[in-house]
Hints:
Elements: H1 15-18, H2 45-56, H3 62-75, H4 83-100
Amino acid sequence: MSNTKLDCTSLxxxxxxxxxxxxxxxxSGDSISRVSCCQDDGYNELENKLKTYIKExxxxxxxxxxxxxxxxxxxxxxQSRTHKVFDDCVSRILFEILKGK
Length: 101
């Protein structure tokens, strides 16, 4: 993915994020698993993460969660976007949203 920022407005499903970029996973068996915000060819990491975040945050809308995920895709460079770093980023944003409700 280039340095182009994803548009995080008007998100209603994961493909609203993944369709803005493309990623072909050519590295199998990577010792440090990273979150790809652009992978949508059979296995979609963001879709799986969304399901988890929805279960963990029933008080938030899917749109709130999608926007948090998109923001973290923009804020964290691919090389640094481990699952822990990504999950921590999303959790921080969702916590702030909850505080404001």
